[in-house]
């Protein structure tokens, strides 16, 4: 499949799982009406993110869900023919360890999973890190997922591109600057970095990137929104800015990637023997 309509979500989610599920189902229907075949929801769309990143309170953590939790099955059922990526707090096999995780679903079930590898300072008190970046096949093409801070590191997206991903799904609960918040969100350092990383990861790997993010506030955290779809040249094809909504773009993924790599093919022209 080459031409794909992609929708990336900017929306707020919290601790009420029933509310979150209802909002997810509404967003799936909105995306379906817009013709979307791939929907990327934010990190922590089921259960919300941490209210305090610097010193997470063990009593205020998101509800931890088993990988086969009924809510994930309900999202898959609602997705039906659509491919949906969604973030949640995953309960490990030991019944205690938590992971900041994402799962990619359709009505046929689970297509792929990812546990956030790079944990910013403070988050390691709430979550254990994942250890791999792996792309996977879906009805809309080969996809790789990144969560939040993962996209700060070029190696994350590069690993997925080298594994054949033509589409990167970036799920975030990305806040404004915690220590020095700007009066206007558009001037906030984290706002600039969020856009910079989205465009850079797409351009340097010559892939399509769908970036979803939370909006609103939770505890001391204020989230940026700024959902977008980015082309292989780093061009923003659709975006929501700071408000809640859907960024929707139709992309001929194979053709766009082929065109971007026609003269300069970044992946094939790498010199890994020279890198440290």
Automatic annotation (TrEMBL):
Alphabetical list of SUPFAM superfamilies matching this protein: Carbon-nitrogen hydrolase (SSF56317)
Residues in the signal sequence: none
Coiled-coil boundaries: none
Keyword Plastid: no
Protein known as: Carbon-nitrogen hydrolase family protein
PANTHER family per UniProt: CARBON-NITROGEN FAMILY, PUTATIVE (AFU_ORTHOLOGUE AFUA_5G02350)-RELATED, NITRILASE C965.09-RELATED
Domain annotation CN hydrolase: ranges: 4-253
Molecular function terms from GO: hydrolase activity
Native source species: Kineosporia mesophila
Superkingdom as given in the UniProt entry: Bacteria
Pfam families: CN_hydrolase
Keywords tagged on the record: Hydrolase
Classification via InterPro entries: Aliph_Amidase/BUP (IPR050345), C-N_Hydrolase (IPR003010), C-N_Hydrolase_sf (IPR036526)
């Amino acid at each position: 499949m080459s031409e794909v309509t992609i929708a990336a979500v900017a929306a707020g989610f919290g601790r009420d799982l029933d509310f979150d599920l209802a909002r997810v189902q509404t967003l799936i229907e909105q995306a379906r009406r817009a013709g979307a075949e791939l929907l990327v929801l934010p990190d922590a769309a089921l259960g919300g993110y941490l209210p305090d990143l610097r010193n997470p309170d063990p009593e205020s953590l998101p509800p931890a869900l088993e990988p086969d939790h009924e809510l994930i099955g309900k999202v898959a059922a609602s997705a039906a023919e659509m491919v949906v990526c969604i973030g949640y707090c995953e309960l490990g096999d030991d019944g205690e360890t938590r992971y900041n995780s994402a799962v990619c679903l359709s009505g046929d079930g689970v297509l792929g999973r990812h546990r956030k590898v790079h944990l910013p300072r403070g988050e390691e008190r709430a979550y254990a890190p994942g250890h791999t970046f792996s792309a996977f096949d879906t009805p809309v093409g080969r996809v790789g997922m990144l969560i939040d801070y993962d996209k700060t590191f070029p190696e994350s997206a590069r690993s997925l591109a080298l594994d054949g991903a033509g589409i990167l799904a970036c799920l975030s609960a990305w806040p404004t600057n915690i220590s020095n918040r700007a009066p206007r969100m558009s001037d906030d350092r984290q706002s600039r970095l969020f856009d910079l990383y989205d465009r850079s990861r797409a351009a340097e790997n010559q892939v399509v990137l769908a970036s979803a993010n939370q909006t609103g506030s939770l505890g001391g955290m204020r989230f940026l929104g700024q959902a977008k779809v980015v082309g292989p040249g780093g061009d923003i094809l659709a975006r929501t800015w700071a408000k809640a909504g859907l960024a929707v773009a139709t992309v001929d993924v194979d053709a766009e990637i082929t065109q971007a790599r026609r003269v300069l093919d970044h992946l094939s022209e790498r010199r890994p023997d020279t890198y440290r």
